[in-house]
Amino acid sequence: MKRILITTALLAGVMTYAGGFRVSLQGVKQLAMAHTSAHAEDASVAFFNPAGISFIPNKLSVAVGAFGAKSEVEYQNLSTLQSYKTDNPLGTPLYAAIAYKVNNTISVGVSVTTPFGSTVKWDDNWAGNEMVQKMELKSFYFQPMVSFKFNDWASIGGSFIYAKGSVDWDKAVNQLGGTLNINDEKASGTGFGLGFYFRPSDKLDVSIAYRSPVIMKAKNGTATFNISSALYPNL
Fold it and tell me: In what helix (H) or strand (E) does residue 186 lie, and over which residues does it extend?
């Protein structure tokens, strides 16, 4: 029996203060349940805990989801009380996962997600333009995995993580009357995930999962300076 879940959602604006560039949208049901990894009804559990794919009730499960995420940041200078707001475009994080039971013991799966990445766009002349005028980060995580089910109530799983991403960063260099741009589309990194999944009863699921850090190195960045001829007429 095939089970296909296709979901879309639009996030309402909320006030947030932390989280960095993490976009925690890898499963609709998990999002509604405070991002629990103890939910093994479909293949979306693959991102949260590779061991959980052994407890998906169907032999083949496919989960696909997409979101619309809109954010806004405001800064106010405490001395002048002048304020600035970002004009960020709509983000479109997505996820896709497939899980398949090879037999009663072994299950395999793959997860594709965009857990990090967003675009922040400030006015070119805002107070912090030497830190950032625009920053666009993108990342894709490819996560193949395998899970072994010991019995009806316990399983263990592991995954390999390959991440591919890019960065496009603009900021001002006011002293030189120019701008700095760093643009690299070849950043990549690797990691791994481990998980245990227990179901001691029909009413209790216990999930323990670990995901290693993934360090993405930008090796081919470029920087360009636009220097005003008024400052250096001999250039």
Answer: strand 178-201
